[in-house]
Amino acid sequence: MRAFRTLLKIECKLSLRGMDMVIFAILMPVVVTIILGAVFGNRPAFEGASYSFLAQSFGAVSTIAVCAGGVMGLPLVISDYRNKKILKRLKVTPVQPGLILAVETVVYALYSICSLLLVYGTAAIFFGYRLEGSWPLFLSAYVLVIVSMFSIGLMVGGLAPNTKTAGLIASILYFPMLIFSGATLPYEVMPRVMQNLADIMPLTQGIKLLKAMSLGLPAGEVFLPIVLMLSIALICTGISVRFFRWE
Amino acid sequence: MKEKCITIKAEDLNKSYNGVKVVTELSFTVEREQIFGLLGANGAGKTTAIECLLGPKAFEAGSIEVLGMNPVKERRKLFERVGVQFQESAYQEKISVGELCEVTAALYRNPADYETLLMQFGLSDKKKSCVSELSGGQRQRLFIVLALIPDPEVVFLDELTTGLDAKARREVWRYLERMKENGLTILITSHFMDEVEILCDKILILKKGLTVFSGTVKEAVEASPAENLEDAYLWFTDEEGTNGKEEQNHESL
Fold it and tell me: Does A2 touch chain B (CB under 8 A)?
């Protein structure tokens, strides 16, 4: 436990020193919240909607950090530490090398949680936002999205042969998902064709789930996203455990 | 007389990559409070041998015991008592000297006090510096500190002095001798014969994975037509390609 705590403390410091996650996971979601709030105000999401545009987007914006940590941060740090032989070095110590993976997962989960709190705080204080649905359900869905997005990151980081490939795959996953899954650009304003394309992205499904939970919409439409998220988590975790490269 | 105590024991170790033998029939023992030198040219199999000894690399045949333990099966117990420094040392970008020591110490149950170690190795004032900003000599000293943090009985040091200037190398030697006096068993790899001559109680010379000599420095010189270790080493490994010694039956690439 002492190893875990110390490693977590130092890895958090190192990550903050890097600044990337501070910008992409902490500042960016807050900025997007402010823009959405300022542009659309508390206008209804569509004519006759019972909820505002911002309320509709809350779930989506809260996943920006999950996306940055899961498919960008995690794969990069894992392949970097493999490349620097940090993973191999741990094999000649009394701790399991998997400890560092657990620590990194927690680091990025902490970013996601901070981001969620900040986005909620910003929306609530400046734009009077309140979560209509149930908090426990919303948080459960949020955890599910984290688990499935992080499992993708662990798989990419665990399998990519070098840092360059890891960076490339991470970019291919991150940028389209960030823009087209609805995390930044609202899914609801996309044309039909684009929405269909967006639907194949796992994060889009996660966002639909969060949207339903945050608005307290009927549970009927969430079955597919839940199954999909769970399957991704299981498959990717399975593949990482089986094929993870330590060196 | 003090009873001889075997710290590291390798028997008939074999390792190959894609059918090419990298280490063949490697056997040796290292006693307590000895400095053992594993020698050979680049690519002779020194690093592979160390990685097999320590467990990260699986080997095909043979057996290994360090402090009477199997490095793979009793990994967690063994590495409480063994310090390791690999050739390319592994640390996070932007990590400071103090942080790297703190995190290393946290991996062990009863670590040595790293503040004291840093002081002994003249690095106390570098605690807040980034590891990547240290000079070559400072960094190698730090790596010795890291290998000593477990408060080990055995340390493995892979090419510790490569890339250091003459003065820094001398400094490292002094530290190694002091460590030995404090009761440590040390296994080093090196291709500098001057330091091997000064430091090592026993040596083993590898050539393309084959053991071409095993014994003391004195024995090595005596067993060859040469007059010093450097010439003897070259004779054993035939790097100059001048002696008519029969080619060993190693598999060529």
Answer: yes
Average pLDDT over all residues of chain A: 93
Report which of A146, A155, A8 is spatially closest to residue A75, judged by C-alpha positions: A155
* Rounded average pLDDT over B126-155: 92
Write down the pLDDT at residue B240.
58
Asked whether the beta carbons of residue A10 and residue B93 sit closer than 8 angstroms, the reply is no
In what helix (H) or strand (E) does residue A209 lie, and over which residues does it extend? helix A202-215
Q: Which of A13, A85, A93 sits opposite B88 (nearest CB)?
A: A85
Task: Tell if the CB–CB gap between B91 and A81 is shorter than 8 Å.
Answer: no
Closest residue in B to A90 (Cα) is B107
Domain count, chain A: 1
pLDDT above 70 as % of chain A:
99
Inform me whether the pLDDT recorded for B247 exceeds 50.
no
The answer to whether A43 faces chain B, any CB pair under 8 Å, is no
For chain B, say whether A194 makes contact (Cβ under 8 Å). Answer: no
**Residue B249 confidence (pLDDT):** 41
- Measure CA A155 to chain center: 15
User: What domain range includes position A8?
Assistant: 2-243
Topology adopted by domain B1-81+153-166+176-253 = Rossmann fold (3.40.50)
pLDDT of residue A230: 95
Mean pLDDT over A141-153 rounds to: 96
CB within 8 A of B172, min separation 6: which ones? B137, B140, B141, B144, B160, B161, B164
CB-based contact, A88 to chain B, within 8 Å:
yes
Least Cα distance to A55 among A104, A125, A127 occurs for A127
Domain boundaries, chain B: 1-81+153-166+176-253, 90-152
Give the nearest partner residue to A85 out of B75, B86, B93, using CB atoms: B86
- Here the ipTM equals 0.88
